[in-house]
From TrEMBL, chain A:
One of its GO terms (molecular function) is structural constituent of ribosome. Residues 30-60 are annotated as: Disordered. One of its GO terms (cellular component) is mitochondrial small ribosomal subunit. This is Mitochondrial ribosomal protein. Residues 184-304 form the Small ribosomal subunit protein mS35 mitochondrial conserved domain. Keywords: Ribonucleoprotein, Ribosomal protein. It comes from Trichocladium antarcticum. It holds the Pfam family MRP-S28. PANTHER family: MITOCHONDRIAL 28S RIBOSOMAL PROTEIN S28, SMALL RIBOSOMAL SUBUNIT PROTEIN MS35. One of its GO terms (biological process) is mitochondrial translation.
TrEMBL record, chain B:
One of its GO terms (cellular component) is mitochondrial small ribosomal subunit. One of its GO terms (molecular function) is structural constituent of ribosome. Belongs to the mitochondrion-specific ribosomal protein mS29 family. It comes from the Eukaryota. This is Small ribosomal subunit protein mS29.
Amino acid sequence: MASPANLLRLSLRTSRRLPILRAAATQQPLLRRQFSSTPPRPAAKDGGQGVESEPETFADPGQYLKTFLRDDTITEAEREEATRMLEGWEHLPKTQQREIETVGNDITTDTAPLRKQIVVKRDSFWHGGETDPDLITNEIGEDDFEEDDMMALGHAKLEEHREFREYARLAVWEMPLLSKLAKPFQPPAQEEVLRFRYTTYMGEFHPADRKVVVEFCPADCAGLGEVQQLKLKKLAGARYNPEKDMIKISCERFEHQAQNKRYLGDLVDKMITTAKDPTDTFEDVPLDTRHHKFKTQIKFPKDWYLTEERKLELAAQRKQALLLDEQKRTEGTLIDGVQTIQEALLNAKAVEELVPVMRGRPLKAPVRGRR
Amino acid sequence: MSAPNCLRCLVRPSTAIPLAIPRQASPLVAPFAPFSTTTATAAKKEVKGHVRGGKKLVLGKFKKNKVESRVRPPGPGERKAYRKRITLSNDNAIQVPWLTDMGPGSLLDTANVAKVLALPEEVQDQLRASEAFKTTQSWKMFRKPSVLVRTETVDLMNRIQGAVEKRQTLRVAITGDKVAGKSMMLLQAMSHAYLNNWIVIHVPEAHELTTACTDYAPIPGTEPPQYTQPTYALKLIHAIKKANEKILAKTYTVSAHPELPQNIPANTPLLAIANAAKEADGAWAVFHALWNELTAQGANRPPILLSLDGLAHVMKTSDYRAPGFDRIHAHDLSLVRLFAEALGGGVQFPNGGAVLGATSRSNTPRAPSMELALAQREAEQRHADPAEVPQKDAFFRGYDERVEAVLRSVQVLRLGGVSKLEARAVMEYWAASGMLRAAVDEKTVTEKWALGSGVLGEMERASLLTMRI
C-alpha cells in the first residue's frame, strides 16, 4: 500500500477534483428527556402553537394557495396576493403545471431520508449508530484519502521549506536594520554598584520571568568602612560569597519584574543603612562561611615541567647513578638478593641429622642388622 | 546405704539372688516420699494413650559432610598470644656481614645517616620489656632487629641530647603520614636513651588508657575528680622496672615514703619502690612515689625519656564515665594527666630529658584540637605568614581548650618519605638478608621509592610484603 511508487503517484497527482458532497446536513436526533420524575404531558393547547401535527403535503402550488385562501385568519392584503398568484397558476399551460408537479414530487421523495427522524437504539454499544452532533468540525469522512492531494509528509516538507525561506528573508532584509539599534558598551560607573539580572522568555509566559537577581560587592558601596563592610557581609548571611566577595540576592515574590526590582533596590538600601548603624557592629559574631565550599584550583607545579634544562639535569643524574652502579658492580659491592641467597645456600654447613638419646644412657652406635 | 532387700518382707537375703539386679532393672522406688501426698505407686507415671512410633522428623539428617574436628581447640588466650607475639629474629634470614651494633653515640653522628644499625641484645630486651616493638613491624623477617638511621633521627637525637646537656626538657610531637615511621622514631629515641642509661617510661598504646578497657577508680580528695587506672599502673611499673632495672638500682630515694605498702626510707634504691608494687590496689601510689622521686629537683637523677604512642587518644574525651554518667576527659585520668603535664611543659626533669608523643594514622580518633594545634605549631616553626597559620573554625564546637593548652608550646616533627640514599641503604639491607630477590641498583631503588613515594612502610609493602618473588 505504502510503496514508494504509490506515494509518488499520489504526491504528484495534479488533477484535483472537488470532493463529493459529504453528508448533506447534520441530522438532529429526536430529543428525549434524559431523566424525569413526572410522566410526559402534552403542551397546553391554548398557547396557540398546539401540537405539531404532521405537515400537510401539497401536489402543486395551486392546491396550496386554495388551502391558504380557505383560511379565515389571513389579512386582506395576503388574500389579494394569494388570489392573484392562484390566477397566475391557473393561467399556466397544463404541461408546465405537470412538470412543476413532477419536480415537487421528486424533491419530496429524494429528501425523505433527510427528514427522517433518527431514533437512538437503546441496546447499541455506546450509542454506536448515533452521529455526534457536537463536533467542532464536520469530521465525517475527513480522514478519507481521496487520492487527490500530496501526502502529509509532502506537506510537512513544504512547510519546512517555507519556514526556511521566511527566516532567510528575515536575515537578509530585517537583521541588518538591528545594527542601527546597537549601543556601544559602557562599563558601569563608580556609583553603579548594583548589577541586575533579568530573565525573558521572548514574550512567552513563564513563571520565572518575574525573577530579578541583584549582585554587588560590599567593597564597592560608597561610604562603608572596614567594620561596616564586615557587618554588611554578616547581614547578608548565606547570600555572601567569600571567594568572590559578592552578595547575591534574588526576588520573585511579586507578580511583575519591576516590583521585584524595586523591592531588591529597597532591600539593598536598607542593608547599607543598617550596616552603617554604629549601635551594634556584630563584632561578637564571626563571619559565617559554612554555606560556601571553597574550591582550590590545582595547578601543575612549575618545578615539574620538563624543560630542556630539567631534561639535561635529569639525564645527568641518571648517568651519574648508572656510573655509580657500574662502579659498584666492578668493585663487587653491588648487592644482589638472588646472588646472596645462592651464596648463603652454598656456604651453609650441612646440618647433622639429630639423633634422639635417652636420658642417662650413653650415645650408642647405630644398630646394625635387625633391631 | 540402703538395705539390699526389702525391709518389709522378712525374707533373708539370699546369695542366690544377685544383689545388683534390682538396681539395674528399675530405679529403686523410695518407700515413701517425704514431699508427696500420694503413695509411691500412685505417683508413678503411667504410660497411657498412643505411643508414637514410626518415622520422626529429624532435622539436618542430610548434612553428611560434618567433619569432626580432631584438632584440639586453642586454649583461652592462646589466639591472642599468637596475635600479639613479637618475633625478633628469623633463623632463615641471612646474616648481614657489615651490620654493626648501635652504640651510645651512634644516633648522634651524621656519618651514620643512611646506614642500618642493629640493636644490641640488651637494648632489645629493654625495648621488648617496654613494648616498643609492634606486631605490624616486620622484625620477624630478619636475623637481627636493625633500624635505618634517617636524617630526622639524627636531628631529633641531637636536639634531645642538646636539651639534656642543658638540663632542659625537649617536648616533641611526632606526626606524619601513614607507615612513615613514627613509632620507629620513638623506638630509636628509646634505644638511644637505653644506650645512654636514661630512664625510659613508655606508653606503648595510648588507646589502652582511654578506651575504657582497663579498670579505673576515683582518687579521693581531688577536685575536679581524677581517676587512677590501677591495673595499667601496675603493668607500667613492671615494664619500667624490667626495662630500667640497672639504673633504678643505682638511683636512691631522697625522701621516705611511709604511704606505700612497704615502708621505704630515704636513700633506698628506686628499684625498691618499683618492687613495692605487688598488687593493683596500691599501684598508683607506688607509681606516684616513683615519679616524684624521679622528678625530685636537686637530686642526682638520670635524664628521663617519657614517650607515648597514639597521641590522639589522650587528646580527647575518654570513654570512661564519671558517676554522673558524663564522659571523663582523658586529662582527668591520672596517668594521662601526668604525661599531658609533662608534654605541656609543666614538669621539669632534674637532669633534663625529653617528652615524645607520636600520633598514629591507622588507629586514631578525630581530635580536632590536636590536629589544629599541630598544624599551627608546624606553621609557626617554618615561620609562615601569619595569614597562613590555620585558625579555628568559629562555628565548630568540637575544640578542646585543655588540649590546646597542652600543645601550645610543643615542637612538631613531621615524618614523610626518606631520601633515595636512605631508601637504597635499607633496600641493600633487605637484599643482603635474602628478603629482596633483586639487585639493588638505581633502577630498583627508584622504582620502589617512587611506588611508596619514599614512605618506608609503603616501600616495605611494595618489596617485602608482596607475594611475588
